[in-house]
Structures are given as C-alpha cells and as structure tokens.
Specification:
Layout (H helix, E strand, L loop, with lengths): L6 E6 L10 E9 L3 E12 L10 E10 L1 E7 L5 E7 L27 E5 L9 E4 L2 H12 L8 H7 L3 E5 L6 E6 L3 E9 L3 E11 L6 E7 L14 E3 L6 E4 L5 E6 L12 E11 L17 E5 L33 E4 L1 H7 L9 E5 L12 E4 L8 E9 L3
Antiparallel strand pairs: 1-14, 1-16, 2-3, 2-10, 3-9, 3-12, 3-13, 4-8, 4-11, 5-10, 6-7, 6-9, 11-12, 15-21, 16-20, 17-19, 17-22, 18-20
Length: about 400
C-alpha cells in the first residue's frame, strides 16, 4: 500500500551547540535558500615551553598556520579573504554553562592582527599562512626571551593573550572553509653566529577547557526559511513551500510523522506490517558541488517535544545512515532510503493521537562541523517528495 501519507514539518532552533566540533569554520556564503551565512571561529593558544634563548636571537616574523580539512560550503573559485582578530576578553563560560553556541560572541580588537586574500583549493591546498602583526610578534618574542611571567604557564598567558577570532575579511567571500583544529601561531627568529640559524617558537591550539567554538549566523531575509523565528519554531510543509529544510548549524531539522498509519487497522484483510521503506528524495536543483547534500543522515525517533530518542538501526545493529544514492546524470533518482519496519510496527500500536516521528540528523560531529543541507518536498511537491512503501500481511475473509 502506498496511500498512507506522511506529515512533514521543519523544526527550528535559534541556538545550536558548537563547542568541541574539532573544526575551525570561517567565511561567508549567500545561499538563496538558507540566507546569507557567516561563520567565525574563536579559540585559545598556549605558549611554548620555556627555554633559554641565545643573546644574539633576533625576531623575524609571526604567522598563523591553518590546515584545511578538505571540507567547504560554497563556491571556492573566488579568492578567500580571511582576517585574524585578537579577543579583548577571555573566553569564559557563563555560570552553569559548559558549552558555547552558534550565536555566542566575544568582542575583538577591530584592527586585525593579519589578513590574507588568496585562492584556497580545498582538495589541493595543504596549508594556509596568514602573516600577523610584527609589532605583536616582537612583543611576544621579547616576553619569551626575558622569561616573563606571562610565558610561564597557560594560566598566566591567557589573561594577557586572550585568544583569537578567525573570520572573513568582508562580505565578498563566496564560501565557508573548514580547517583542522591543529592551529599553530608560529614565531620565527634567527641566531647569528658564523652562520645564520633560522628557528621558531610555536604557540599551539589549546582546548582542554572546550572553549573553542564556531559562530554561525544567517540573515534569512527574503528566503523560504524567513518565516522561522523564536516564535515559529515548527512549521508544517504546507506553510513552507511544500518543503522541509535541513541545515543543522543554522538550526533547521526535518521531522516526519505518520498520522494515517492506523488507517491500516480499518482494512478488513489487515493482519500485520511485513515491511516498510521510507524513501526521501531531495528536491531537484537544490543540491550540487557548491551546496552538497549530507552524505549521511541518521533517522532518530522523537516525540511532540522534539526530544531526540533512539536511532534507527539496521539488521546488524548499526545505525542507518540513509544509503544516499546521487543521480549524477538525470538528477531524478537521488534518494535516502530507510527501513522503518520495526518503527512502524511499534507506532501502529499507539492508540492515542500519535505525535511521534523521525528526525533526520547528520551524524556526530558532522552536524556541527559542516553546512551541508537538504530541501525535501512533501507529497504535493512536484520536484521531489517522500515516499512510504509499506507491505502488510493480508488474509482474505
């Protein structure tokens, strides 16, 4: 039977936890569906271990070293314009809080420590170097050379050098880039004896207190998702262009309910559900290499409060991730596929008004480290829809 309808809604959250992602995000992209998205990263650095420097040591330069993790969102054929800013306050948690969110912010010195404008090839570029202020570099060098108090421990260093923000220089970027969280601020110096010997000191990424986080904000004005706000946090597909939306980092998750499931019980020949497949086809022309689909999506049970429950598993006990197939040629048969047999066998026994459903969620930590997104149509959307194929055991009277 394929006449059982699903009910689709989009659940919106105005704050998403982004601490502990293992990824540094920076850049901006103007998405015609999800709005103007801007990403910044906040993080701390630890001083190098104290060691005596030769009296003839001379400062040369200071650089921030970033390693792309080959993940991106947007058009990478344009130049990347990134700037590094120094925080004016330490990254500290408010009382009773142990994580930061995509809307968290900390003040920075408006004058950047350093800026680059270059093209980054995510699959080719292995390292990005951002030259930083020589004035700040010389200041750090002199403190280290004199064995100053602030260089003797991370606890002493952070009140002095409170942390950095990596952000796009202007609104003219066309992509958000992801970097590994193995960031290094490298101070270059040399010693002059018979020959010149080049050396360096590394201020390494520090996150033992889970203070690194990514800020991800979007201006949704004029987009299909502009109807969502702190009041409208769950909207049915018929009120949002017969579509539901997924982009976890900007707060959007799709929910699928099965309100007509118990209509099966009205069939005189019905005995029990034998098999059920849920096939989800993203809308055509809403995904490409610039705005890719999530390669994996978990199907997590939820209720009317939208609280996460258990994740659907396969026959071997592993999590179902949708088995995404992309139709590269005709763009017709791209789909995620889930076996919802056990789930619907349980749900058909719920006699009260059933508000339970399935939420589609990227796996951890992809949900807070990428901006991959999906737009899914309901049964009235001609560009793509969800299909429930349900088979049941029938006994003729």
């Amino acid at each position: 039977v394929d006449t059982l309808s699903t009910q689709l809604t989009t659940v919106y959250s105005d704050s998403v936890a982004t601490s502990g992602s293992g990824v540094i995000l920076a850049g901006n992209y103007d998405d015609n569906t999800f709005g103007k998205i801007a990403a910044k990263s906040f993080f701390e650095l630890a001083p190098p271990s104290i060691a005596d420097l030769a009296s003839n040591s001379v400062f040369d330069s200071l650089q921030l070293i970033l390693i792309p993790n080959k993940s991106f969102y947007g058009d990478t054929t344009f130049n990347t314009q990134l700037s590094v800013y120094q925080l004016t306050n330490q990254i500290t948690f408010p009382l009773y809080q142990t994580i930061f969110y995509n809307n968290t912010d900390f003040a920075v010195d408006p004058s950047p420590l350093g800026t680059i404008s270059q093209q980054i090839y995510p699959n080719i570029t292995d390292t990005v170097f951002i030259p930083l202020s020589n004035t700040k570099g010389k200041e750090l060098f002199d403190l280290y050379k004199s064995d100053d108090y602030v260089m003797q421990s991370i606890a002493n260093f952070l009140p002095y050098f409170k942390g950095l923000q990596l952000a796009s220089t202007s609104g003219n970027m066309h992509a958000v880039y992801a970097f590994r969280d193995s960031i290094t601020m490298r101070l270059y110096y040399h010693q002059t004896d018979v020959f010149i010997t080049n050396k360096h000191l590394d201020f390494i990424f520090h996150n033992t207190d889970n203070t690194q986080f990514n800020q991800v904000k979007s201006d949704r004005t004029g987009t299909p998702v502009s109807v969502f706000n702190s009041t409208n946090k769950e909207i049915i597909s018929t009120a949002s262009n017969n579509s539901i939306y997924l982009q976890y980092l900007t707060g959007f998750l799709p929910k699928i309910k099965f309100p007509t499931l118990r209509n099966l019980l009205l069939r005189p020949d019905y005995v029990k559900i034998l098999k059920a497949d849920l096939i989800i086809k993203p809308l055509k022309n809403t995904y490409n290499s610039i705005t890719p689909l999530p390669p994996q999506l978990l199907a997590i049970t939820t209720d009317q409060t939208n609280t996460f429950g258990t994740t659907l598993t396969n026959a071997t006990g592993g999590f179902q991730t949708g088995n995404l197939v992309i139709d590269q040629i005709y763009n017709e048969n791209t789909a995620y596929d889930y076996d919802v047999t056990s789930y619907l066998q349980q749900q058909i026994l719920v006699s009260s008004a059933n508000q339970n459903g399935l939420m589609l969620v990227p796996p951890s930590t992809a949900w807070i480290s990428t901006l991959n997104r999906a737009v899914i149509g309901d049964q009235k959307n001609a560009q793509g829809s969800i299909q429930l194929k349900l088979y049941y055991v029938s006994v003729n009277p």
